[in-house]
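Interim report to the steering committee. The following record documents the input for Riboflavin synthase (218 residues).
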Amino acid sequence: MFTGIIEGFGTIRDIRPTGQGSRFAIEADFPLDHVKIGDSIAVNGSCLTAVVLDGRRFEVDVAPETIRRTVFSTIHVGTRVNLERALRLSDRLDGHIVSGHVDGVGTIVSKERQANAVIVTIAVEKHLSRYMIEKGSVAVDGISLTINAITDTTFTLSIIPHTAEITSIGQKPPGSIVNIETDLVGKYIEKFLMTPKAEQEPKASPIDMAFLADKGFL
């Protein structure tokens, strides 16, 4: 689990194909304190497992499904990426609950200056926008952000200078593709509401007092 509060940048140093998947070597701009092999690190919002660790450099295996769902199909050596180490239960939850399981991608269609903020509009498909609400949370390239406005095919964000400076969204021009993870809670609510009531009813347990007595427990 993650919070969507980006800790810093990393740089893709190497990409090696592994069948239909890939292995990325990434160098972080900050010390990877307390990270060990097997730990999760969110790379542009995608939860990946560190399989090699050498100082600030680490390697991750990227599965074919992850490549299909994310911007990693277009990534290249030298790309700057957002990094966040996994949430600890003792940490403050400053952003929102981010699983690191990217739902799909969106495209930045416009960026407009408004006072001290940059208004960013991102186009997405309807299967993503259905899980977004005005003033709800969304993770864009792993960044926890608040939705200003939403339509069936676009949503709008207000990016403050601090966020623009320390994350990739401040550097990406219109036309850039970004990873999108919608709010986890909405997906569970939809699944529950769409499940037939008969399937929701708890089934009676075969274990009762008579069963226990018959088996010699009473």
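The two ends are 45 Å apart (CA to CA). The committee is asked to note this result when reviewing the revised timeline.
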